[in-house]
Structures are given as structure tokens and as C-alpha cells.
């Protein structure tokens, strides 16, 4: 534990981070080590090239998250979304929701879809996501049909785009807390 | 399951069941009894003619003193067909019973089928005993070699892989640790009880008790299937209990052999225990390995079957059964071999075989397993009556109570441990269902029956206790579990399918999670799954899937199938209204006004389209295909299209007229009021989903994924009329309209003759593959090609 504490002190704002995300000190340290390992050129922050270096990520839509420069707190915050939901943590009614609450998880995914950050997933954005996922094996018109169908299903106010509420509604049957959790990050 | 030993075959004489025939035709009894030796003198001329004439009738030439016998016009020779006749009689009886149950209106909803069948067996057994013949006993050979494999194969082939692998840890815990706990607890307590003075049981030593505990502690897959299938419980619980019942076979095998071997020696040393553990690993992993090898062989064989489609189903059955038998040769776990075989071979088989073979396999498996299950329960009833009864109140009651207690304690303790590792915890309700669902069945009985009477003089007492436990679990627990499930409001199986949104987003999430795991540098669940899928795609599929289909995504075959199905549904619904996707927003979606005001009706595309989209997503994201959720043999949908053909043609004509009308409408296409689901439509929603679907208006529109195979390029905009007509499946450009959507074998040749362009030729061939079944006669193709 001694080493953890000393490393912990090296990490700026560790205490705030832990508070905000709910990670334990050991986790923060582990993530910090990983962060440093990814940061090949020792720049102090992560840029898209570092993520490109992880070859398994080649076909992965997560890449777009890493379009901008990431410092350590943002890195941790992103990963915090994937923590399993902790039912035992007392919920302080005044504090903002935990980062790994269901609604925040959904918001995270929504932001991945919504690249131009206008609060809606338009048909184009959806198409883009589908295109990355389906890897050229499907023709363009099929993609378009799928996109059309998806929007049709979810789009309640007929504006040809999916807002966050519609998105949330369409996912109400899916067990997000389970699906979007990595046990490792508990 | 352990190999039988020869002396135990005594009960296998089928001849004793001959008396069942007597029930049908009593007057046959006497000739059977009077069957005499073959070499009776000719010319005996008896009236009943029970004697077999070995010499030709006119062979009286040797003995001039005998008169020439008349040529027998009609003779009676039961002995020659006796064995097969009896077997078939039993099977027929079992099936008729099954039919009978479902005809009685309320019965099948109150009492599970298994109970009824056991009762029938009991009645039959008593009847046979009254007549004086020794009724057929459920011999272990019969059970383990003929009756059990179909059920297990059915379960293994249609095992839902995703929930199974997600919960594998939990299932293994229950199967291995739970069974061990159960056997030792039951064995120990019984031993303690036996030692008590006054019960007259002191001759039952520790090892037989432990053996008994091992036999009785295993949850039985047959019983679980029979009961759980009817209560439609949610997927998680179903797979937990069912998976446990399948996987505990290895444990049971090892324990059984271990205790049996050493029971007469009298003691078990540490070395034996250690060897037992090693044996367990060997038995389970070996069984899985054997099964996997046979599965790969089967998949490889199916790669070459494109010319002889008719024997494809055979390979599934033969290879699987051989896997089972091969595992039995080495005393490995046959059940695990069978399951591994089914699981391994399924994805590749499904890619290689024709749709008809696929249907055949599905139905055949279901049929076989259904018959087996029925027979098992009936025989169980019959055997109960047949055996010698050494009823011992103490032993039996203690057994029943201890079984329940052990199960409950085991589940509670294990869940407590498991919940530390699970993300989705098991609630108390879940635990109750798991504990309550631990039914014992015929496997326990057969194992008990196998015991050697010399080494185990108390075998009959054991048997009676086993039977009592089985009856108790099947009757009491089986009957009450349904009302309890309702009472406790346990989550039932989800009736509705997932929407496209859910599908896409879930797949997206999986990718996302894999990425996050990579970012964290943590090799978790998703990472390995992803790796396995990539490995599969890169190497294994190339070997095992025929020809060009290894490279192209499996999606295309599905896609065509879905398109066809959807095209038929189009015809059904009488709506040719389609907004082709190539026309982006001119005919915008706002024009589609649902006619039902109160609730928002999603402008529906047909189920087929949904299904297809789902499939596209799923297969392309390298997931295991879950093509069949026909997990439940009770809800297989009856084969549609038995009589829908003429309706199709008429509707098709209607559609043509409708389209002509539409052509005159300019740009605003309104959706006609969706007709209520005709039975044909409902029946058209077959194959993948056995659940009855709630009727949704089948107005279709929008995303028109072009069905037109002849010109795969999407038409850049044509007139609305042409677009509207497009979706109809046109295999050839010729007179398809009148023929409707039926693909007759003759039409298979046409595309070959005049391919419009090489692309369409390929498309045709893919299409043909879907349909290809150079079946017996062209006239057989009287129903559309739907899988």
C-alpha cells in the first residue's frame, strides 16, 4: 500500500477524481500506470495517435472518442462510465448523479453517436456509425434502410432524428447496467 | 453415464411386453404360448395355423403317406415380427397418450405432461401385472443408449449459446460444487440415520450411502426440460437450472464409479480421492473434446454435401450419436460429448446445409426427443409397479426430506458466494426457483437400477427411495411450480422481440466494451470473445464452410431468405406500398399517417424485414448466430403454407391491381388501412421465432431493401409504379406475376440460361442455394420455399 500512496500523491487531483468517479485508490493508480504506458512519447496527455497504436482498436468505434487530446482526469472520467453500478454507495441527494448511473451511461453512448454534438442523432450520424460497425460487408442501400428503420422506430416526435430522450426510451428494456459494465473497473 | 454391465440386462426382454399385444387382440395369447418347434411334421393341418411352415407347402413328396397340404392362403406368423412390433406398439401408445392429453381441455394447463405420463405408466404396469406377465422394466441399456441421447442432442443443438456462456461460471458452480455438496450431505445424513438403532438399517455402510447420495443428487435434464418448458420462465433462470442439469453429468459419473468401485472394498483412501478428482477432469474435458472432434468432423463433412442435400440431416444425427457412443467407450461423460458436438457443429452446419435440411433436422430432433421423453416417463411408471418393493419408511422419508434440505442449503450458500462475482445478482426469488426446480428423474432411476445386487443387497430399497423422490419432485414440485411462479411474480420470458434500436445499440456496446477493455489493457470477457470470433472467422470458417460462402458474409443467404419471406408477406398484406430507399426524402416519412390514433403505431415493416435487419447486424458483428430460438419443443409452429398457396395467388393478383392503382397516384402514397393479420400471415412468421407474435398491423412501407435480384443495382429513381412493383421477388424476368412467388424447380434452370449479368448470376446461385434441394419430384414443390 505504501507504493500506492506514494504514486497516488504524484497524481494530480487524485482525491477529487476518486470522489467524483468512485474509483478506489488502487484503481486510480492502475489506470495511471496504464495511462503512462499508452502515452508513448511522454507528452503528458493522450492524443489520437496513441490510441491508434493499440491495434485492436482498429475497427472499433471507440476510436472516435479519442479524437481529441485527453488528459488523465478525462481519461479516468471516460472509464468511470463503465464501472458497474454500485448499489451500496449512499446517494447524496444533493450531489450530482454518479458518473456510472444508468442515465449517464446512456448519455455517454449518445454522445458517441452524436458527433456534431447537437443533441440529436441524425440519419447521417447513424449511417456513419453503422458504416464503421458493419465493415463494408453490407451495401450502402442496406445501410440506409437499416438507418431509416432505426430512426423510424425511435423517433417519437417525427423530426427525423433521435434525441436523447427518445434514445433513452428505446433502450429501456436493455439492461444497461449489466451490459455496459466491466467488472475489472469495479 | 456409466456403461451397463451384462447381468443388468435381464430386464430387457421385450417379449414380456407381448402381453400388451394381448390387450389388443386377446385371442392371440394362446397361439403364442403354444408356439412349438419348427420341425413339426407337415400335414399337421391345424385350424389356428400358429405353426410356422418351414418346408414348402407342397413338399409332401418325401413322405408319400402324408397328404398334400393345401397352399396356405393366409398364415399367422407373429414371432417373426414380434420385437419390432412391440417397440412400435409402445411408441404408438406413448404418442396417442400425448395426443389424448392435449385434447382434454384444462388438463394440460394444470398438470404437467410428465406427471400424466407417469400415471399412465403406472396404470399400464398394473394392468400388465394383473394379466400375469412381467412388464417391461426400464432397462438401463434401453434408457442410456436409445432414449436419453435424442433428448440431450436436442438440448445441445438448440442451446442458446449467449446466455449459456455468459452464465457459465454460475452454472459450473451449481453443477459441480452443488452436486458434490448434495451427494455428501445426503450420503452423510443417511449414514447417520442408518446407524441409529432401531431402524434395522445398520447393514448399510458408509460407502453405499454415499453412492446413493451421488445417484440421487443429480438434477435431471429430462425432468427439468419437461417441466420448465411449460412455465415459460425467464431466460436466465431457465438456462441456469437447465445448464446445471446438463453439466452435472460428469460429476455424477465420477462419483458413481468411485463409490461403486470401492464400496465392496469398504474404504476409500486419499489416493482414491485424488484420482477421483483427476478422473473428473478427464471425464468432463475428455467428453467435451470427443464431442468437439465429432462436431468438427460433421461440419467438415457438410461442406461437401451440396450435391446430395437429402442426406444432410443424417450427418447431424449419426455424428452426434457416434460422439456419444465413443465417449461411452472410454467411460467419459457421454452427455457432455453430445452437447459439445451439437454446439460445435451447429454454426457451420447451418451455413452449409440447405434450408430444407435445416427444417428437417429441427423437426426430427424435436420429434425424437419428444417421443423419447414420453417413453421415459411411461416406462418409469411401469417400472415402479414392476420392481420388488422393499419399502422402508425411515429410509424413504429421510431421503425425501434430506434431498430438499440439501438442495435449499446448497443453493443459498452457493448463491451467496456467486453473487460476489456476478454483475447481475441472483435475487431470493431466483434462488427459490433454482432450488425448487431441482427435479430428479429417470437418470437417477437407471443408475440405481444398474447397481449390482451382489454388492448392494439393499438395492431394492434404494430403488424404492429413488422412485419416491422422483415422484415427489415431479408430481409435487412439477405441479406446484407453475402457480408459484405466478404467485411470486417471477419474470417470465420476454414475449416481444427486441427492436432494431436495441439490437444496434447492443451490438455497438459490445464493440465499445471490447475497445474499452483494450484501452485498459485488461483482457476480459469481451476481449476473448472477440478474439475467438476473429479466429473463427479467419481460419475455421474457411475450412468448414463450403466454397465461396466462407468468404462472403453469411448474411447474404439470410438476406435473401428474409427478402423472400418479406416479399411473401407483402403479398399477404395486399400492400404494395413501398417507399424505396433511393428516394430520399421527397416522399417523406411524414406522409405516413398511422390510422390508429390513440397509441402511436409504428409504421410497421414486416417482421421479416426486422428479422433480416437484425440478422444483418448480428452476423456482421461476428456474433454467434442465434438463428433458432426453438428451444422449446412445445411451441414449434405448425408448418405454414400447407394450404396457403391458392390464397397467395389470389392475393398476388390483388396486389397487382392495387399497384396499378397506385401508379396513378402521384407522389403521396398513403398507407392503406392495415388489414388484420390473416392466419397465413401469422403462420408466415415462422422459423426463427416460436413465440406467438402479437398481431401488429402489417402495413409496410419504407425501408425497401430491394428484393429484386435480377438487377442488384438500386434503381435510381424510377417511376413510383415501377418502384412499387419492384419488391416482388423476380427470379426470372418472365411471367412471374401469374405464378406468384412459388419457386418451382423448373425455375431453377431458367436463371442459368440467361443471366442478365454475372452479378445476377451469382445472386441467382445464392438464391438457389437457399432453395436448392434437387428433391424427388417437381410436383413436390407445391409449397413456397420458405424455410
TrEMBL record, chain A:
Gene3D superfamilies: EF-hand. It comes from the Eukaryota. One of its GO terms (cellular component) is cytoplasm. Its main location: membrane. It is found in: Cell membrane; Cytoplasm; Nucleus. Keywords: Calcium, Cell membrane, Cytoplasm, Lipoprotein, Membrane, Metal-binding, Myristate, Nucleus, Phosphoprotein, Protein transport, Repeat, Transport. Belongs to the calcineurin regulatory subunit family. CHP subfamily. This is EF-hand domain-containing protein. It comes from Electrophorus electricus. The lineage of its organism: Eukaryota, Metazoa, Chordata, Craniata, Vertebrata.
UniProtKB/TrEMBL annotation, chain B:
Residues 582-683 form the Sodium/hydrogen exchanger regulatory region domain. It catalyses: Li(+)(out) + H(+)(in) = Li(+)(in) + H(+)(out); Na(+)(in) + H(+)(out) = Na(+)(out) + H(+)(in); Li(+)(in) + Na(+)(out) = Li(+)(out) + Na(+)(in). Residues 45-56, 747-766 have a biased composition (Basic and acidic residues). It is a multi-pass membrane protein. GO terms for molecular function: calmodulin binding; potassium:proton antiporter activity; sodium:proton antiporter activity. It comes from the Eukaryota. Residues 43-65, 669-787 are annotated as: Disordered. Keywords: Antiport, Calmodulin-binding, Cell membrane, Glycoprotein, Ion transport, Lipoprotein, Membrane, Palmitate, Phosphoprotein, Signal, Sodium, Sodium transport, Transmembrane, Transmembrane helix, Transport, Ubl conjugation. Pfam families: Na_H_Exchanger (PF00999), NEXCaM_BD (PF16644). One of its GO terms (cellular component) is basolateral plasma membrane. Residues 91-485 form the Cation/H+ exchanger transmembrane domain. The keyword Ubl conjugation applies. The chain crosses the membrane at residues 115-132, 138-159, 171-193, 205-227, 239-259, 271-296, 330-349, 370-387, 393-419, 431-450, 462-485. Residues 1-35 form the signal peptide. Gene3D superfamilies: 6.10.140.1330, 6.10.250.1040, 6.10.250.2020. GO terms for biological process: regulation of intracellular pH; sodium ion import across plasma membrane. It is found in: Basolateral cell membrane. Belongs to the monovalent cation:proton antiporter 1 (CPA1) transporter (TC 2.A.36) family. This is Sodium/hydrogen exchanger. It comes from Electrophorus electricus (Electric eel). The gene is SLC9A1.
